[in-house]
Q: What sequence folds into this?
């Protein structure tokens, strides 16, 4: 193809009146070439190049569907299409995703690094709602990130109350295999009662007892300085972009199973963008304080309830029996992580123990609780009642009231004689 300068010279000579033959003689080009240049533009039309088929092309509809669901995380999408047979590299996938990715505003911050084993950062995040035990609950994620190795722990709950806050710490310590020297978090009500004008913090007594038991120092961020715990904030963004989009789960237990699998196989096995190393590879070098050799801290939920005159105590929308000697009394109720409900007297003596039931309006009855009471004192047996077997074989809960059964013709006769 002739250069632009040569094409311009040929057209310029023709514009000045030279013949095709003279132009061909002067430029050394064939007359057919000269005629073609004269008839055409100075800038030739670029040839349309056919795009070569890409290995990514068969997976474009799937990728577009996943992006519509909010999934833009390239490593995650790469794993998904490779499981479907994709054999290409990550570069063409990244180039395909980039134009569709929502733009994010950048904020300048100063990064603060900690020594191995020095600090973990904790935070809660809200993830919408979930149907759990027959009710609609808010869904929360508890996250803890080790500051040096960036090892992440994630667990979903339906409450941010003190019990679940402590259990999140405990489960994270077991997952990491040890305890950091300090834990940094927001001014959560489950940890900080209040900040004095001089900056002094009044801590929740149970949280301080928990921290003393495991030998770590709690630290709270300065108000309106949440970026102080930027490592766990980054972890939340990572969960929202890599794990959460397009996720399908059947219940809370299934969600947490998938979260644990993701932690073990993806989050803590990837090369971290800041450290350039795999979190699990760095974790043994954290030299955390050991957690083994001591029993777990009692994180059970403790509250009080008043039992009724018919020896029933209401908890979580359901009813549980107590011994007749503790009817119509204020009792302590402890919900264990194992799924049991322990009912104690005011002095802490255990008086009843039940397996927690789901739903609402259910009754769990232990017949032995009604010893020496007349049948009329027993609570009515409802369709949702559940009797613990083997505790008092001689007693059966009374049946419901007898109802006389009449034929329909009897009611028809009443209609006919009615005025």
A:
């Amino acid at each position: 193809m002739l250069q632009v300068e040569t094409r311009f010279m040929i057209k310029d000579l023709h514009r000045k009146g030279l013949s095709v033959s003279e132009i061909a003689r002067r430029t050394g080009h064939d007359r057919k070439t000269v005629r073609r240049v004269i008839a055409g533009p100075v800038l030739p039309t670029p040839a349309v190049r056919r795009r070569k088929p890409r290995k990514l092309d068969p997976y474009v509809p799937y990728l577009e569907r996943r992006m519509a669901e909010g999934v833009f995380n390239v490593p995650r999408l790469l794993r998904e299409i490779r499981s479907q047979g994709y054999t290409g590299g990550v570069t063409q996938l990244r180039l395909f995703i980039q134009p569709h990715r929502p733009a994010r505003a950048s904020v300048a911050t100063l990064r603060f690094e900690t020594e191995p084993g020095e600090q973990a950062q904790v935070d809660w995040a809200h993830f919408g709602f979930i149907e759990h035990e027959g009710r609609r609950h808010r869904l929360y994620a508890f996250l803890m990130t080790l500051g040096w190795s960036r090892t992440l722990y994630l667990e979903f709950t339906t409450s941010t109350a003190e019990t679940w806050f402590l259990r999140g710490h405990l489960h994270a310590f077991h997952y990491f295999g040890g305890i950091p020297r300090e834990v940094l978090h927001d001014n959560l009500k489950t940890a900080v009662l209040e900040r004095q004008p001089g900056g002094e913090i009044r801590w929740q007594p149970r949280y301080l007892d928990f921290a003393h038991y495991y030998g770590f120092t709690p630290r709270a961020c300065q108000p309106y300085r949440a970026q102080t715990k930027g490592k766990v904030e980054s972890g939340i963004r990572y969960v929202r972009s890599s794990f959460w989009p397009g996720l399908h789960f059947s219940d809370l237990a299934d969600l947490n199973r998938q979260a644990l699998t993701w932690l073990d196989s993806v989050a803590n096995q990837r090369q971290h963008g800041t450290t350039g190393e795999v979190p699990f590879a760095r974790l043994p070098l954290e030299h955390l304080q050991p957690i083994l050799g001591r029993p777990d801290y009692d994180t059970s939920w403790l509250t009080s309830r008043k039992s009724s005159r018919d020896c029933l105590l209401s908890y979580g929308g359901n009813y549980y029996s107590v011994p007749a000697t503790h009817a119509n009394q204020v009792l302590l109720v402890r919900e264990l992580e194992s799924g049991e409900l322990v009912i104690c007297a005011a002095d802490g003596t255990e008086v009843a123990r039940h397996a927690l039931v789901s739903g609402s309006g259910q009754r769990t009855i232990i017949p032995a609780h009604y010893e020496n009471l007349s049948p009329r004192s027993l609570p009515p047996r409802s369709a949702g009642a559940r009797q613990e077997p083997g505790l008092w074989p001689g007693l059966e809960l009374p049946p419901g009231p007898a109802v006389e059964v009449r034929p329909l013709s009897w009611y028809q006769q009443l209609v006919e004689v009615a005025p």
